[in-house]
């Protein structure tokens, strides 16, 4: 068991925003909620999957909806707790620990606050290894673990229990509840045993987020360029450098959908790069050339600081580095690509691992 204090939370928030692939909810809001929880409950207790007993009972805690909504609909801090309370009541059993649903933005840190309020530890794992747009986009789905019963809770205390036939329908029904209540809700779902969590989760993601954020912070403290450090730590690839000259976002169907266009600078002068996103970045192209696609991660880092720029934080004139990060091997399986590959999101291309695309592009040049 590890004790997580304010310094760890600060680093984790930065790293989570990198792995969020542009989405996952505003990491600043998640950080503030976590820091306030430390003031109220003391440092967090985090356990590894190995420390989790096989017969433990755990669930995921997270927000669902459009990230841009959080700018005006700021959480009051108790929605996630209310959802877990309601799920415990529905199942007639208390949870022994709480898990993050995804490694990204707000949803990486929200579960810490919920776990502290419930007096239980947080598990150092998640169900994505990144952020994805939909509730069903978790490795738990790949291992046939049901999301339901699931509980949806809003800031007013409204509670909806979802009993769906599968995780795809759990996403649809929960998303409609989010739309009805103003664009975002908090949820508790994917109740499972410790044995199931060990088999189906991605281990160590909270610690990984912390390592990423710490690497960026220490690079700044040592006055060195953090980008090479981050690329090495992530096993990632620089795909493009440019100035943001066009961005369009719309909140539709409970998602933030849109595109961002970069005009190349430095070695990329004369070229262009376009990103397509649905909460998270799903496709990066330069002209007709695909640079990276889901389920691999696409992140935009500030060219000076290497701090991540979220989809809702993109502004005209921003200078960014687009990087591609290999995703966990679970998502490169046949079933993983079926529910999270480019064709699932409507892009008529085959998935090619980002490391192979980079080699192909280098050979062509």
UniProtKB/TrEMBL annotation:
Residues 166-354 form the S-Me-THD-like C-terminal domain. Residues 8-163 form the S-Me-THD N-terminal domain. This is DUF917 domain-containing protein. It comes from Slackia isoflavoniconvertens.
